[in-house]
Amino acid sequence: MKVVFLGTGTSCGVPVIGCDCDVCQSADSRDKRLRTSVMVETEGKNLLIDCGPDFRQQYLNYIGNRNIDAVLLTHIHYDHVGGLDDLRPLTYKGGMAVYCRSDVAERLRQNMAYCFGTSHYPGSPVIELVEIKEYEKCCVAGIEILPIGVKHGGLDILGFRVGELGYITDASEVSERGIAALKGIKVLVINALREREHRSHMNLKSALDVIRSIEPERAYLTHMSHEIGLHAELVEKLPKGVFPAYDGLVVEI
């Protein structure tokens, strides 16, 4: 299995428009973060987790001409679904299955009505929405997936377990049930917005607490804002086995 980090930034991305902080002005490519998304390569299939507004750029930069077999969505926020329209060239031959919670599917049918039913506009992406539920295993392109329920402030969203990979983003907390469901994984990808607390995202301390509870062999931080600091300095702060991810990083499991 390989995990390709397509984006590791927050909804604003890094650099943030109009910001002159050290991170936003950094020349280190690892400090330039597109909106958060990964592609998981396993058993000959490519699964995209989240499809934000930077998807076209991410595909051209890091995926190339490889196919995407299915899409998993964590939640409805624009920085995680804003690139779905850009899937269109990949959907014309056989459509694209997009797996998500029922509330996310409902919102997508409203927000992208031109893609569905009798309103389907010629040339728009051919998307099949498949509704999934937390803690109910599902088969995605032949791969067994376990959706994990997590909280994003007051919003219920999904993380995922794919074999020995756990993927959590935008979470403000992970329940004991979620932690138990992720026990035994080798690699955990988890959000860590910044060092200061935030009402709807885990900060660095709370992310490290979850990592200690799950005990993966390795953990990679994602969904980081410019307030997390310079990548080169963050690397030195983290405990053994914990790493800040960056755009274009490929992790093998």
Entry summary:
This protein has 253 residues and is an alpha/beta fold. 20% of the residues lie in helices and 28% in strands. Strands 6-5-4-3-2-1-14 form a seven-stranded mixed sheet.
Tell me about this structure.
It is a single chain. By secondary structure, the chain is of the alpha/beta class. The protein has a single domain, classed as Metallo-beta-lactamase, Chain A. Helix content is 20%, strand content 28%. The chain contains seven helices and 14 strands. It has helices spanning 55-63, 78-81, 88-91, 102-111, 176-181, 204-214, 231-237, and strands spanning 2-7, 37-42, 45-49, 70-72, 96-100, 127-131, 138-140, 143-152, 155-162, 165-168, 187-191, 218-222, 242-244, 250-252. It has a seven-stranded mixed sheet. A seven-stranded mixed sheet has the order 7-8-9-10-11-12-13. Helix 4 links the parallel strand 5 (96-100) and strand 6.
| SS strand fraction | 25-35%
Give the radius of gyration: 17 Å
Strand segment tally: 14
**In angstroms, what separates the terminal alpha carbons?**
5 Å
CATH topology-level fold name: Metallo-beta-lactamase, Chain A
Q: Mean of the pLDDT scores? A: 97
The CATH class label is: Alpha Beta
By helix and strand content, what is the structural category?
A: alpha/beta
User: How many strands, what sense, and barrel or not for the largest sheet?
Assistant: 7 strands, mixed
What strand line-up does the widest sheet have?
Answer: 6-5-4-3-2-1-14
Q: Low-confidence parts, pLDDT < 50 over ≥5 residues? A: none
Assign a percent range to the helix content: 10-25%
The CATH superfamily appears as Ribonuclease Z/Hydroxyacylglutathione hydrolase-like
Number of domains: 1
SSE series: EEEHEHHEHEEEEEHEHEHEE
